Please model this.
Amino acid sequence: MIFSHPVTEIIDQRRSYRSFLPEPLPDPQARELSAFLAALPEPPFASRVHLSLVRAFDAEARKIKLGTYGVIKGARNFLVGAVENGLADALLDFGYLFEATVLKATDLGLATCWLGGTFSRSAFAEVVQLGPGQVIPAVSPVGVPRESRSLVDRAFRYIAGSDGRKPFGELFFNGEAGLPLTEMKAGPFGPVLLAVRRAPSASNKQPWRIVRDADGRAFHFFLKRTIGYRRLPVDLQVVDMGIAMCHFDLSAREANFSGNWTRRPPRIPADDLEYMASWVVY
Ligand SMILES: Cc1cc2nc3c(=O)[nH]c(=O)nc-3n(C[C@H](O)[C@H](O)[C@H](O)COP(=O)(O)O)c2cc1C
Model:
């Protein structure tokens, strides 16, 4: 995956935007984004993830309105993704690759907004001719943002507290869940974890928790579910975890750390946390 700016800078810059100039994507950016999609690598758990760039213009020619319940204004292009089923591996892989593409769009100066709830599932399913059993976990508008945010956008950001993130020590632990890891103790992995902390998540719930092994050679990713958060039609908090894995992986690579994804839960159990995956140094 090739970016033209440092990935940690792109991650810092990315924000959700909900109002766009009602114009097609500028040609060079459209071509670069399509090339990026065509060259996506295999995701951590090797699921089949189908991502495509859809033009509202083409959908309208087929009498399909790509509705977002009035949340998104002006967008003429959407990134749409589908997976073979709604199981955890597929959703993690989806979150990982979709976020990589969102970061590429940001790299190209375009704006995006993950939508896991406020979009017409039936319209997007029709436009990508979704196959039996396949699921669209989320979509995103892609385009040039309007200079000022719409009222709806500002309301969403205010309600979700979109500019804030939980403190470092509430998200990342040292050796055992519950023992906070400080940025200082994280050493060279500090910037990598800061990149995870900046990740977008559904309703900005930030359900990711990471436990670093005492020897610093493995990072275990856990889900802390938000009580009462709906898992249907798609378990969006698992998608959030895939996004966090993407931020971790891309920033670790940029810092020249080598590791890979595996399932190797730590021996010490973590009460209310659901184990998802580990990144292990090699
Ligand atoms: C999986 C996922 C689903 C989301 N679904 C919606 C949605 O349905 N509607 C919406 O307006 N924003 C949605 N968001 C955007 C979040 O509210 C936003 O990422 C969060 O508040 C943090 O703000 P930021 O992206 O500007 O950093 C979603 C984000 C993620 C990661």
